[in-house]
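Protocol step 4 of 6: structure prediction from sequence.
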Amino acid sequence: MPKATYAQLGDACATAHAMELIGSRWTYPILRELMLGPKRFNELLATVRGITPAVLSGRLRELAATGLVEAELGEPASQHAYALTPWATELGPILRELGRWAQGSPVREEAGGLTPDAAVQAMLTMARPDLAPAPGEVQLYLRDDRVSGVEHPYRVRWDDTGLDAERGTWADPTTTLRADSSTWAEILFAGRSVDGNAEVTGERTPVEALLACFPAA
């Protein structure tokens, strides 16, 4: 029997309802992996660490029923993908604010790593573009060496109004950086050196300006 909702129990708080929508196990990792664009089932299975096919199928059905996720049908069936609804994409800034809040958790465990999309979401969460010496852009390619060597491209740009990152490639990038996504997170947030841990081609100055957006680097 389904659990009674807060509203059914007499609590009409909208924030309580919000937590019902996004507070279940696996919900945030699925939303995170779809925040930058659609993914096929097997892509989600590879990037939502630890989830089983059956659980992923069930969670996708639940998220579709609550209006957060929608299926994008393709041909053949193996090309079917899942995407966030426009309403769900409005969660982006809210979840990033939640991530900043969670940095102060006294029980947070930092073991593990980050998928490429998770590393990019971490960038969007923690960036301080006001610290960059100049605006710029970088073509970023991230891979998750825990899974495969497949690279995922991201267009990254920043100025005094903020940092933006999205899947895709610049037409003629002046600077390209390639790295394992977990290693890239360590470069950004733990002061690990770029040298020997990432491959930079083209102008290096934009990389230095990007790193300046993250004070720990």
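Step 5 (inspection) to follow. The beta strands are 39-40, 69-72, 81-84, 136-143, 152-159, 162-167, 175-180, 199-202.
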